[in-house]
Every structure is written in structure tokens, then in C-alpha cells.
Amino acid sequence: MLEVDQLSVDYRGISALDNVSFTVAPGELVGLIGPNGAGKSTLIKALLGLLPMHGQVALYGMPVRRQRHRIAYVPQRSQIDWDYPITAWNVVMMAQTARIGWFRRPDRQANRYVEEALQRVDLFDLRQRQIGQLSGGQQQRVFLARALAQQADLFLFDEPFTGIDKKTEAIMLGVFAELRAAGKTLLICSHEWGEALDRYDRLLLLNRTLLANDTPKAVMTLDNIQRAYGENLQLSNGHLETLFFC
User: Fold this and answer.
1) Beta-carbon neighbour count of residue 9 at 10 Å?
2) Considering only Cβ atoms within 10 Å of each terminal Cβ, which end of the chain, N or C, has fewer?
3) Which helix (H) or strand (E) holds 209?
4) CATH class entry, domain 2-242
5) What is the distance between the alpha carbons of residues 147 and 57, in angstroms, rounded to a whole number?
6) Which residue has the higher pLDDT, 83 or 142?
7) With 0-12 CB in 10 A as exposed, 13-18 as middle and 19+ as buried, what is 82?
8) Per-residue pLDDT tens digits for 16-27
9) What is the pLDDT of residues 62-77, one digit of tens each?
């Protein structure tokens, strides 16, 4: 479904990503991990066509720039202006803008998609609440609902589990399971560690280039972690623990 071939990104002569290649199949939940500054967010933005790049990114065999309507993106919470005066309902309705147009009233189908998405993340009763008045977990669920309302095939999440509550985490994991069962593809930039990584089908270990691409058990070896994180790790009770994450 998603094919990335020899993807490279340079910032003013400095290499942010170098020769990254991988594929992600329908129904896969893939975690993207690596140290701070490894290029994880850069990779996601490159997949969206938001950065100049070298190499090829294809979705269903076609250039990704022609398939943006099939991709849903949930950015890091730190990248969002939570003071912007917009309701939860209108944030989710933005997912339907490409289909209905900027200056047309939402049709019945758009309203149904938005209502179903807000119901799924348990926020329908707060649909008229300003996003700045919501808790961190509720804010994350608003953007998850927006992704669901887009009716996309590929879902890109940038650190979705940062600063959320247990209820939001449970809802998100439930949604991820439903999307996988429906044959959707999910790529998640994660700063998680330890047993939490077992929820992924595969891990992509990145540090400007792709260091490992395999099951969590095969990727999380001492050799791979040292290649990715260098000396910034510790051994405690036989387990690997990094000093910093994503």
C-alpha cells in the first residue's frame, strides 16, 4: 500500500533523512521509533508531501501527492494552536472540507461522518466546546475523530500517546484495532519503550537512516539500540532503558 523508496531530505545542506526505504501493507500497525532528532517527524511530513525530498513515495502505486485525500494525519499536540476559537465539531468537520469544498454547507453525509467519529471517541456531548477548554486527552481525541471522519486509508500519527489519560489511551488503542481489522494502514511515531512496543506489528528504527525494520523483538536488540542511541542508554535489571526518547 505505502511504498517508500530511497527517500532523502536535506535542510540547507544538512542531511535529515538519508536513503530510507520501506513498505507498509494494509492492516499493519507500524511503530516509528528513534532518538531525538532522528528525523521521525521529518519522515512523516515528507510522506505527506510537505517537504522537498529526493526519492519516491507511492500509495497504491501512485505518487503520494495525488493521494492526499486518502491520508489522515494527526500531528503532535505541541504543533497545534489550542487558543484558536474553534469548536470540537468544526475541527472534525475540517476532515470533510476536501470533499464538500471550503464554502459549501456540510451535507448529510458529512454530518453523519462527523457525528459518528465524535461518538466513537466519546466526545459528542462536548461537540460545541472550544478546543482550548478541553483536557489534553480530549484534545487528542478531537484530532483522532478528525482522522476518522476523513474516511482515509493511511493514518499517520506523530506521538499520539504523549500527555494523555488512561481513558484516551484505551479509546485510541480500540480505534487502532478497528482500523487494522478494516484493512487500514497505520504508521505511528512513538516515544514509548518496553512492553508498549509489543502492540505494533513491526518497528522502524530510525536515526536519519533506517537501521532496522522487523518485529519489535527483532528490532529491540542491544546492538540495534546502541547503533540508534549511541551511549545514551543504561542497563538496569537486564533491561534496556534510554536516557531520552522521541
Assistant:
1) 21
2) N
3) strand 209-214
4) alpha beta
5) 21
6) 142
7) middle
8) 999 999 999 999
9) 988 888 889 999 998 8
CA atoms of 121 and 109, how far apart (whole Å):
19
Reported pTM:
0.88
As given in the structure block, the three cell numbers for residue 20 are 530510507
Q: Which three cell numbers stand for residue 243?
A: 536516557
Closest CA to 149 of 86, 88, 190, 82: 88
Q: Could you tell me which residues are beta bridge partners of residue 23?
A: 3
Between CA 144 and CA 121 the distance in angstroms is 8
Distance separating alpha carbons of residues 139 and 134, to the nearest angstrom: 6
Q: How far apart are CA 59 and CA 61, in angstroms?
A: 5
155 and 147 in contact (C-beta within 8 Å)? yes
* Cβ atoms of residues 225 and 212 within 8 Å: no
